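User: I'll paste a sequence; please echo it back and then give the predicted structure.

Assistant: Echoing your sequence first, then the prediction.
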Amino acid sequence: MSVPIDDGNCFACGPDNPIGIGLSFEPSDDGGVRARVSLGPQFQGWRRIAHGGIAMTLLDEAMAHAAGHAGQRGVTASVNVRFRKPVPLGEPLEIRGRVASVRRNVLFLEARVLDAEGVTLAEGDGKFVSMGPLDAANDRRNPART
């Protein structure tokens, strides 16, 4: 498999994807990452509630960015999701991810989707396989990338 390249078109975080979610992650106080978002009606499952696949996408993306924050180009191997409460549309959400541990080239990650009061709506844990260190050559922010 070739090295994954971030070209800005990721559905969850790509700034060049016109139909994407538009997540933008930053470091969090627990050593992981966080993003804030309010989901629009195009991400609906049941009325006023995000589709479960979208909620899972938020968790998966938080884990991927946590891996990147740890310096690894991680790709999803498996994810377990627990839906605690419906993820609402049109309300502020915070998505958090962090690396729980690393064993060889496998990263064990955790993520949560929280409402404005900090209540956990969905949580997940996953295993990501490292495809090597995250480097500027394959980062969309580097204009010299291949």
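The chain has one domain: 26-138. The longest strand covers residues 120-133.
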